[in-house]
Amino acid sequence: MLFLISFNLFSQSNFEKGEILYAESKFQEAKQIFENENKTSEHYYSCIEYLGDIECNYKNWDKGIEYFDFLKNKFPNNANYQYKYGGALGMKAKESNKFVALGLVNTIENSFLKATILDNKHVESRWALIIFYIEIPSIIGGSEVKAQKYVKELMNISKVDGYLAKAYVDVYFKRYTNAEFNYKKAHEIGWSPVTFQKLYDLYLNKIKDPIKAKQLKKEFNK
Question: 16, 99, 165, 182: least buried by Cβ within 10 Å?
Answer without folding.
Answer: 99
